[in-house]
């Protein structure tokens, strides 16, 4: 969520061109009819999406009977709005953004996790001397001005025994890393450990990277696949199931041979740095999959969602309690059964 300049440039180029369920039937593969499916990304194409592009490049979507159109959003705040407007079938978004939208009455539901853990981190470069939250006393912390980032900072400081009043939060927009490197802030909260963190390491800037879920913020899936609940009839539900399970195969391809899996991503945006994207994929691979190997790709822990949603309510980010079982479903994942609450109204 912090790569704003690159996002604008990439989007300008890309938009110019632009009971238990059974497993997908592979007999429809290879030359059979396909159904269209529009997928809107959360951001410009990057390593977070490598498994999706691997699925497309390997033919996994076509084999599942799908013609998937991968669409970058006009800006990072747009995916859920465009999903509600019917401009896309599935949107990749952030778990807190989904909960905020539902709090405002949007009947949206997450049908699978793309990234299982938070990518947001507390970050500083070596010269600042900030290695722990305790080092933030009397310091300046840059955020993107997003309310839940401010709540993360408050929780982190209180967990560390630091008076939040002793730390100055500065809204630097999405220029988190430039502001930090220029010395305008001593640390940032909002940059991704798997992207900005890896980039800073490769540039020899000695970043101190601390993941928010290890500092007192309840864990949550950073990126999720979101649909409109009212669209989940039998026909569209079948397409969602085939999409999620074909995406799982794309991530298996990426895990087995990362360089081959990257090919589709690099073809989608020829301006991406291969070395950086490869390093980011290597760092991110563990959080593409559930920690419990018995769980399928995309699995969502309702208890984790509930703890995070309750934390958002405690922080005043939500106006009413959000019930996790209504915000997510695992029914479209491999081997998972029908969600008994799917047909209920929110």
Give a verbal description of the structure:
The chain has helices at 4-16, 50-58, 60-63, 79-84, 95-103, 147-159, 176-181, 196-202, 234-256, 258-268, 274-288, 302-314, 324-327; strands at 35-40, 66-71, 90-94, 108-115, 120-124, 140-143, 168-171, 187-192, 208-211, 223-228. Helix 2 crosses helix 9 (234-256), helix 9 (234-256) crosses helix 10 (258-268) and helix 10 (258-268) crosses helix 11. It is α/β, with parallel strands linked by helices and 346 residues long. It has two domains: 4-117 and 221-327, Periplasmic binding protein-like II (D-Maltodextrin-Binding Protein, domain 2); 120-214, Periplasmic binding protein-like II (D-Maltodextrin-Binding Protein, domain 2, 3-Layer(aba) Sandwich), CATH 3.40.190.10. Strand 6, helix 6 (147-159) and strand 7 form a beta-alpha-beta unit. The strands form two sheets. A five-stranded mixed β-sheet has the order 2-1-3-10-4. It has a five-stranded mixed β-sheet with strand order 7-6-8-5-9.
């Amino acid at each position: 969520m912090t790569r704003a300049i690159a996002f604008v440039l990439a989007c300008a180029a890309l938009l110019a061109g632009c009971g238990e369920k059974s497993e997908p039937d592979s007999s429809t593969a290879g030359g059979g009819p396909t159904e269209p499916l529009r997928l809107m990304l959360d951001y410009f194409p990057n390593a977070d999406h490598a498994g999706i592009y691997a699925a497309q490049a390997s033919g996994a979507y076509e084999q599942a009977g799908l013609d998937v159109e991968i669409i970058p959003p006009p800006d990072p705040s747009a995916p859920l709005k465009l999903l509600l407007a019917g401009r896309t079938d599935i949107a990749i978004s952030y778990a807190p953004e989904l909960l905020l939208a539902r709090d405002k009455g949007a009947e949206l539901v997450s049908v699978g996790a793309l990234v299982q853990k938070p990518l947001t981190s507390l970050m500083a470069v070596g010269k600042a001397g900030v290695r722990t939250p305790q080092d933030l006393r009397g310091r300046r912390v840059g955020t993107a001005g997003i309310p839940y980032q401010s709540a993360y900072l408050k929780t982190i400081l209180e967990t560390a025994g630091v008076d939040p009043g002793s730390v100055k939060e500065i809204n630097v927009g999405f220029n988190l890393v430039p502001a930090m490197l220029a010395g305008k802030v001593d640390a940032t909260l909002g940059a991704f450990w798997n992207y900005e963190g890896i980039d800073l390491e490769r540039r020899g800037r000695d970043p101190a990277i601390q993941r928010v879920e290890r500092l007192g913020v309840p864990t949550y899936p950073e990126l999720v696949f979101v649909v409109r609940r009212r669209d989940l009839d039998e026909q569209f539900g079948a397409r969602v199931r085939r999409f999620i399970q074909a995406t799982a195969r794309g991530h298996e391809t990426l895990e087995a041979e990362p360089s081959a899996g990257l090919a589709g991503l690099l073809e989608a945006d020829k301006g991406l740095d291969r070395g950086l994207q490869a390093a980011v994929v290597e760092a991110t691979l563990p959080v593409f999959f559930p920690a419990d190997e018995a769980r399928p790709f995309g699995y969502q822990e309702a208890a984790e969602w509930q703890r995070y949603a309750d934390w958002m309510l405690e922080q005043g980010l939500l106006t009413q309690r959000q019930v996790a079982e209504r915000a997510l479903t695992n029914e479209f994942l491999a081997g998972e059964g029908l969600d008994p609450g799917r047909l209920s109204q929110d």
